[in-house]
Amino acid sequence: MSQALENTQIPDSSAYMINNEPFYLPVADEKPLFTAAYNARLPVMLKGPTGCGKTRFVQHMAYKLGRPLVTVSCHEDLFASDLLGRYLLKDDETVWVDGPLSRAVRMGAICYLDEVVEARKDTTVVIHPLTDDRRVLSLDKKGEVVEAHPDFLLVVSYNPGYQSVVKDLKQSTRQRFVCLEFEYPAQEDEAKIVEKEGGVDEETALSLVGLAHRIRNLREQGLAEGASTRLLIYAAQLIRQGISPKNACLTSMCLPITDDPGLSETIVDLIEDLF
Ligand code: ADP
User: Fold this and answer.
1) Could you tell me which residue ranges the CbbQ/NirQ/NorQ C-terminal domain spans (predicted)?
2) CA distance 201 to 213
């Protein structure tokens, strides 16, 4: 086998550029805060429940800041090498292929690690030297230390609702980020989002949001997480296609969020009250 080939050119960022402005309705001061963090190159953590707009926000900010965006959805089988890269055999030669994080570091992208806590522990360790003033990524297998491009920024998301003691971010990791907290948008804002993204009229959007609020209150009765903005948009998209509101809500805002017969019954009652 021939000697390992070097492949450390700066990757083409055009595939990672967002060309059309993603619709994002600000819910607080997250835009100026993120911009300030980006300008100071402070790593950012987005904390909040699933489906409340974190991913959309990063897409919007990457567009606004004119930076490429590299997104990685973290999961429990995500190894450090999946982020960093590995040697692969190609035409009898071993070629180093950068992983998404290495690519982002070289091209000066915003790298978004979605649900970072899901990743294996060895994965979180590789991001440490990137998130302090060293701003380097160590590719141990390749024997290379990559200095982050000046425009690079690491962003992670984290859903505190899911966390258990076993799966929590260590303080040594958490304390490397500034944190923006996300919640479901206020009622009128959420209705505007559902109207725009779901393609329904204002009245329907407001009804769906009203229902979501009632469902979210069931958390006190043991519901792990309320219906997300994403699910409201799903319901709206079904309604727009002629599915009855009752059926759309059952399919999008009840069945996905719980298997508990008692809670399901309560949600069905809430739906029937409304439609
Ligand atoms: P998360 O990353 O928090 O799980 P997403 O960013 O994927 O959630 O949000 C789910 C959907 O909700 C998005 O695709 C978008 O349609 C909508 N959404 C949520 N919040 C907003 C917002 N503030 N402005 C525009 N769309 C939003």
Assistant:
1) 190-273
2) 19
Does the beta carbon of 229 sit less than 6 angstroms from any atom of ligand 1? yes
Ligand 1 contacts CB of residue 95 (under 6 A): no
The fold adopted by the segment(s) 14-181 is Rossmann fold (3.40.50)
The C-alpha atoms of residue 148 and residue 104 are separated, in whole angstroms, by: 9
pTM: 0.92
Please write the tens of the pLDDT for every residue from 3-47. Answer: 344 445 678 899 999 999 999 999 999 999 999 999 999 999 999
Q: Which residue has the tokens 């590719």?
A: 139
CA of 53 to the centre of ligand 1 (A): 3
Domain range list for the chain: 14-181, 187-273
Measured CA to CA, the distance from residue 241 to residue 252 in angstroms comes to: 14
Neighbour-count burial for 214-238, b at 16+ CB within 10 Å, e otherwise: bbbebeeeebebbbbbbbbbbbbbb
User: Does the CB atom of residue 233 touch ligand 1 within 6 A?
Assistant: yes
The neighbour count for residue 180, using CB atoms within 10 Å, is 21
pLDDT digits (tens, 9 = 90+) for 89-108: 988 999 999 999 999 999 99
